[in-house]
């Protein structure tokens, strides 16, 4: 079964010209395949490593991890692999795709190559089409050439027109001759030595792929807007969940504003003291070997308290809205989301908005600490019901 599957895949890649071949076809599939006998017709190879050392009278199609063709192919070559190396003459076209593609022998027909790195040192009798990060043509071409890539190097004698689209640099080697027109797009002009000649003229288009100052500002604003939207949306969801799952706790935080209005400032001071003193205590404990574990635990609790304070600050606003406009003391999940939305918008106001958000967060932190304290050390039977 392991050998049948690669053969089926290769069969699906048969070139159209394969049906015109007269000799019998050859199928070979091995983990490590070395073909030492010639093929009278088309040949189809598959394997992790494929090496062809015998001539092929028809077309050659191969797929694998590494492919090397070291013998002439009378027809076309169709090669797919991580590493492709065509080292001998090809009587037809070459179509290759892989991470690294190397074409060293002359090609009578067209060349189509796709890969990370493509190097063609065998002169093609037809057209050339290459898409690669790094592309090199070192022996020219008899037909038109089209290349898309990053860094592109050209050398040799080119009979037809050459078109290049590069995101990096374009190089022309010494004594390079382009008898047609050289048309290229790149961020900077090509390196063309004095010994190189372009008979049909050069058409250069400056194509900078980096955004200009205006585009950069737009992209930065869009990024900031997306970040704020994601942050506000996440806060709305968390506030709605907390208000919906623990409504009594939310009502208790809001109740501390109305039941004991004179203690609002003291509650804020409690929250301020805890939020300021806790980091100092954590650092002092972390300096001692014995207190590292306790410091880690306190850090986790401190982070949780800060997060809850920010969320319950929004829930506090939503609960106050519910009492003021809906005339109800019950805090619903939508009150938490509405209050968090209001808090997020208030926080966007410079200075004043941050001061208001900080004050509400300090009060929420102090109120939560008092509620948790009374829950841990209850003095009334109703206190445990808050959670």
Give me a quick take on this structure.
The protein has 387 residues and is α/β, with parallel strands linked by helices. It has helices at 4-12, 213-245, 247-259, 264-286, 292-326, 333-347, 352-376; strands spanning 26-29, 32-35, 43-52, 60-69, 77-86, 94-103, 111-120, 128-137, 145-154, 157-158, 162-166, 170-172, 177-178, 182-186, 197-198, 202-206.
Structure explained in plain terms:
The protein folds into two domains: 101 residues, no CATH class; 174 residues, no CATH class. Helix 2 packs antiparallel against helix 6, helix 4 runs antiparallel to helix 5 and helix 6 packs antiparallel against helix 7. The protein is elongated and about 95 Å long. By secondary structure, it is of the alpha/beta class. It has seven helices and 16 strands. The longest helix has 35 residues.
Features:
40% helix; disordered N terminus; 2 domains; 26% strand
Largest sheet composition: 13 strands, parallel
Encode the helix/strand succession as letters.
HEEEEEEEEEEEEEEEEHHHHHH
| Number of E-state strands | 16
Q: Quick one: overall form?
A: elongated
Mean pLDDT: 86
**Residue share in helices?**
25-40%
**Regions with little confidence, pLDDT below 50 for 5+ residues:** 1-22, 381-387
Cα gyration radius (Å)? 36 Å
How many domains make up the 3D coordinates?
2
Strand content: 25-35%
Number of helices: 7
In terms of structural class, how would the helical and strand content be classed? alpha/beta
Termini distance?
A: 62 Å
């Amino acid at each position: 079964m392991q050998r049948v599957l690669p053969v089926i895949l290769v069969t699906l890649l048969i070139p159209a010209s394969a049906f015109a071949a007269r000799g019998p076809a050859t199928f070979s599939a091995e983990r490590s395949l070395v073909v030492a006998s010639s093929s009278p017709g088309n040949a189809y190879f598959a394997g992790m490593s494929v090496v062809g050392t015998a001539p092929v009278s028809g077309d050659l199609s191969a797929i694998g991890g590494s492919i090397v063709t070291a013998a002439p192919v009378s027809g076309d070559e169709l090669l797919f692999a991580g590493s492709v190396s065509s080292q001998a003459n090809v009587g037809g076209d070459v179509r290759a795709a892989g991470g690294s593609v190397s074409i060293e022998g002359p090609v009578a027909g067209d060349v189509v190559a796709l890969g990370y790195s493509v190097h063609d040192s065998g002169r093609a009798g037809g057209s050339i089409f290459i898409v690669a990060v790094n592309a090199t043509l070192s022996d020219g071409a008899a037909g038109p050439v089209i290349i898309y890539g990053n860094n592109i190097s050209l050398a040799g004698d080119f009979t037809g027109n050459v078109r290049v689209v590069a995101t990096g640099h374009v190089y022309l080697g010494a004594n390079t001759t382009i008898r047609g027109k050289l048309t290229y797009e790149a961020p900077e002009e090509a390196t063309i030595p004095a010994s190189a000649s372009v008979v049909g003229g050069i058409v250069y288009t400056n194509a900078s792929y980096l955004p200009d100052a205006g585009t950069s500002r737009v992209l930065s604003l869009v990024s900031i807007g997306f970040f704020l939207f994601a942050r506000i949306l996440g806060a709305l969801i968390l506030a709605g969940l907390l208000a919906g799952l623990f409504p009594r706790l939310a009502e208790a935080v809001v109740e501390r504003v109305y039941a004991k209005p004179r203690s609002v400032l003291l509650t804020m001071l409690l929250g301020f003291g805890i939020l300021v003193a806790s980091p100092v205590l954590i650092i002092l404990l972390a300096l001692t070997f014995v207190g590292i574990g306790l410091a880690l635990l306190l850090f986790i609790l401190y982070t949780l308290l800060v997060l809850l304070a920010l969320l319950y600050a929004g829930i506090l606003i939503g609960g106050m809205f519910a009492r003021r406009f809906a005339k109800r003391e019950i805090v619903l999940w939508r009150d938490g989301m509405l209050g968090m939305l209001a808090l997020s918008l208030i926080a966007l106001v410079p200075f004043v908005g941050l001061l208001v958000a900080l004050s509400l967060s300090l009060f929420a932190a102090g109120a939560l600490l008092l509620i948790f304290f009374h829950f841990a050390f209850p003095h009334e039977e109703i206190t445990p019901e808050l959670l």
